[in-house]
């Protein structure tokens, strides 16, 4: 039985080594310092599972739903769920799931039309979640950096890009989240990116002026 780390390594190496089971097995043996690696059939099955379900753990796409439900049931029901107006988001199946687990703690486009109450997603709202103001842009820079010839290549590139994000970067991202909340209050809920830019520009000019004086 292989660990999650080992499974991810096998999938990424199998792709990087142009789907060569032999080269993948040798790389696995060297990486984990083991005398024997997985056979070709095991490597191919693991990669096929990843292509089918987008996971090295779950065997079917449908498994994502139950695991998400269990995770939500274990959490105190005090959190709010926020989503924008991307088309797959505002369909009845999604709204029904959100209503079951979050009740009136949902901010989403067209959600009030489905429930008759609750809060709509404000149009052109400023980005607040780390995925919006950091992750998507960081991943796009990596994923779109090179031409991809098949659909599975971007998936693997995304995995590599996520694994390469350092703990220090994540700490900075979360610190920035608190700062963005303060800017949001100051701007009365309106866009504040231009305010942040002007403040950063002012700080830079002040810094360079102090350097010149010293």
UniProtKB/TrEMBL annotation:
<dbReference type="InterPro" id="IPR032135">
    <property type="entry name" value="DUF4817"/>
</dbReference>
<dbReference type="InterPro" id="IPR036397">
    <property type="entry name" value="RNaseH_sf"/>
</dbReference>
<dbReference type="GO" id="GO:0003676">
    <property type="term" value="F:nucleic acid binding"/>
</dbReference>
<protein>
    <recommendedName>
        <fullName>DUF4817 domain-containing protein</fullName>
    </recommendedName>
</protein>
<feature type="domain" description="DUF4817">
    <location>
        <begin position="3"/>
        <end position="57"/>
    </location>
</feature>
<dbReference type="Pfam" id="PF16087">
    <property type="entry name" value="DUF4817"/>
</dbReference>
């Amino acid at each position: 039985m292989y660990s999650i780390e080992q499974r991810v390594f096998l999938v990424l190496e199998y792709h990087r080594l142009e789907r060569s089971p032999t080269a993948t097995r040798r790389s696995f043996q060297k990486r984990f310092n083991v005398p024997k690696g997985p056979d070709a059939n095991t490597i191919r099955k693991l990669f096929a599972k990843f292509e089918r379900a987008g996971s090295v753990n779950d065997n079917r796409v449908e498994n994502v739903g139950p695991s998400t439900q269990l995770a939500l049931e274990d959490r105190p029901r005090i959190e709010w769920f926020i989503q924008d107006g991307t088309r797959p988001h505002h369909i009845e199946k999604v709204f029904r799931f959100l209503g079951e687990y979050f009740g009136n703690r949902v901010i989403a486009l067209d959600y009030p039309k489905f429930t008759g109450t609750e809060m709509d997603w404000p149009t052109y709202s400023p980005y607040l979640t780390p995925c919006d103001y950091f992750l998507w842009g960081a991943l796009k820079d990596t994923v779109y950096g090179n031409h991809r010839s098949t659909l599975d290549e971007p998936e693997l590139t995304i995995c590599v890009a996520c694994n390469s994000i350092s703990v220090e970067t994540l700490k900075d991202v979360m610190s920035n989240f608190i700062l963005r909340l303060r800017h949001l209050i100051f701007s009365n809920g309106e866009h504040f990116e231009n305010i942040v830019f002007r403040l950063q520009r002012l700080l830079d000019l002040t810094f360079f002026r102090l350097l010149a004086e010293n």
